[in-house]
């Protein structure tokens, strides 16, 4: 195979890539062709490629991208099965190219593609490591957001200050460009949790980045459905926790303990209601309360703590069986450790109880992670 020399590239016959546009998508079939048309206009004087990262869309999005890719070699597609998440999709897309500048834009047309050349030039010509499309400057804006959504976004922006090393006016932005080498430096520490990849990058990078901000006005969606739901908020707080304490305590363990605390409330509430409203003796009421709390813990952990490995259908029922088995063993360990310490400390009941709870919780977390929500 003949290799092309550097002189060959300099002739202009083949030009090296200037930028790769990373576009994470999920069920955006009505937006793909308009977005590519707009990219072709604003990037007409550059060598670019568009890398779509699709999380197994079911509305024909992948077929449209494949059709475009067969007609235009600048269009590429990465299809993902069995995993989702905007942050991890962006990282996979970035690692699939050797372009020196990487730009990230949503596939829903809500980001103003006219700002892309400004973001790219901030890095290529003005020496920035990171260029961010910001909604929170005088020239930028959030469009027609409701007051509630605006307040939530502003609150999340304030919380982000807890973990960012590089000050930004809009750390929640999903519209930015970054020097490839800068991203590579941050990748070992990335959480790739949730939807806020920019926040993850600036919180993970070992150095303070040189930043340029470009204002833009956020647009309303014209096709497709929004992907924002309660899980986005949960994943945002999970990302913050990971950056604050993740090096010491696994975030999933924190979530598991939080669910267990709520489960204790369910247990005590069920037990109290049964004692007050029925003639059941304490032992039978206690068993019912245990079953209710265990079911609650399992369901909420399945939906929250292990949402990336969520079980459904027959696998949900099978998972509940393994969860109950593991937690039963954990209960035995809890009682055994607590009893041993109680005897050794001359009836120091609170220390014994805390030790038992600690051992039981760690066992339940490790065992259910391996038995119930094991990665395939």
How do the strands and helices of this protein lay out in sequence?
Elements: H1 6-10, E1 19-25, H2 32-42, E2 48-54, H3 61-71, E3 75-79, H4 86-95, E4 101-104, H5 116-124, E5 130-134, H6 147-160, E6 176-179, H7 180-186, H8 197-204, E7 211-215, H9 230-245, H10 251-277, H11 282-305, H12 314-344, H13 349-371
Parallel strand pairs: 1-2, 1-4, 2-3, 5-7
Antiparallel strand pairs: 4-6, 5-6
How would you describe this structure to a colleague?
The protein is an alpha/beta fold. It is 52% helix and 10% strand. It has 13 helices and seven strands. Strands 3-2-1-4-6-5-7 form a seven-stranded mixed sheet. Strand 1 (19-25), helix 2 (32-42) and strand 2 (48-54) form a beta-alpha-beta unit. The relative contact order is 0.09.
């Amino acid at each position: 195979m003949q290799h092309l020399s550097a002189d060959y590239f300099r002739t202009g016959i083949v030009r090296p890539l200037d930028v790769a546009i990373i576009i994470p998508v999920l069920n955006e079939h009505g937006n793909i062709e308009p977005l590519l048309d707009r990219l072709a206009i604003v990037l007409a004087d550059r060598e670019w490629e568009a890398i779509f990262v699709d999380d197994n869309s079911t509305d024909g999005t992948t077929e449209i991208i494949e059709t475009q890719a067969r007609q235009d070699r600048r269009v590429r597609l990465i299809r993902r099965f069995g995993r989702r998440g905007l942050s991890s999709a962006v990282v996979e897309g970035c690692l699939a190219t050797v372009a020196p500048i990487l730009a990230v834009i949503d596939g829903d047309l809500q980001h103003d593609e006219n700002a892309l050349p400004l973001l790219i030039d901030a890095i290529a010509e003005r020496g920035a490591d990171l260029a961010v499309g910001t909604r929170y400057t005088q020239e930028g804006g959030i469009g027609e957001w409701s007051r509630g959504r605006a307040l939530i976004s502003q609150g999340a922006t304030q919380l982000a200050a807890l973990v960012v090393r590089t000050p930004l006016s809009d750390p929640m932005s999903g519209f930015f460009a970054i020097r490839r080498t800068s991203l590579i430096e941050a990748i070992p520490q990335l959480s790739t949790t949730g939807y806020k990849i920019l926040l993850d990058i600036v919180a993970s990078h070992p150095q303070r980045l040189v930043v340029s901000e470009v204002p833009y006005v956020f647009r309303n969606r014209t096709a497709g459905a929004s992907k924002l739901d309660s899980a986005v908020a949960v994943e945002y707080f999970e990302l913050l926790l990971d950056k604050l304490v993740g090096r010491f305590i696994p975030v999933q363990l924190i979530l598991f303990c939080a669910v267990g605390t709520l489960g204790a409330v369910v247990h005590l509430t069920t037990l109290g209601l049964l004692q007050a409203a029925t003639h059941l003796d304490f032992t039978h009421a206690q068993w019912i309360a245990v079953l209710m709390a265990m079911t609650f813990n399992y369901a909420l952990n399945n939906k929250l703590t292990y949402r990336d490995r969520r079980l459904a259908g027959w696998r949900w029922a099978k998972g509940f069986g393994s969860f109950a088995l593991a937690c039963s063993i954990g209960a035995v360990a809890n009682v055994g450790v607590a009893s041993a310490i109680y005897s050794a400390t001359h009836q120091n009941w609170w220390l014994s109880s805390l030790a038992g709870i600690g051992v039981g919780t760690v066992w339940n977390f490790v065992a259910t992670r391996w038995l119930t929500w094991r990665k395939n």
